[in-house]
Amino acid sequence: MSARSSDVPRARGTNQTAKKGLTATEIYALVFGLFLGLAILKFGNPAILDQVIESPSSFSELLKEPWPLHWANALLAVLTVLGAVVGFASKVRWAGPRSLWVLPLVWFVWQLLSATQSVDTRLTAIILCQLGGSAACYFLGAMVVGKGEGWRLVMVGVLAALAYCLVRAVDQKFFEFPRERQLMIESEHVGWTNLPPDLVLEMKHDRLIISSNGVDIANPLIMQKYEKGRVHGTLVYPNALAGAVLLLLPMGLVAVFDTTRNLRRLTCVVAMGLAMFLGATALFASGSKGGWLIALAAGAFWLLRLNWPRRFKWLMIAALIAGGLVVFAVRFQSYFAKGATSVGARFDYWRVAARIAAEKPVFGSGPGTFQRPYERLKRPEAEMARLVHNDYLEQFSDSGLIGGLAYVAWIVLILAFIGRRLWRPGSWLEFAVLVGLIAWFVQGLMEFSLYVPALAWTAFTLAGCLLHRAANQFDKPFPAN
Question: Residue 379 class from Cβ within 10 Å (0-12 exposed, 13-18 middle, 19+ buried)?
Answer without folding.
Answer: exposed
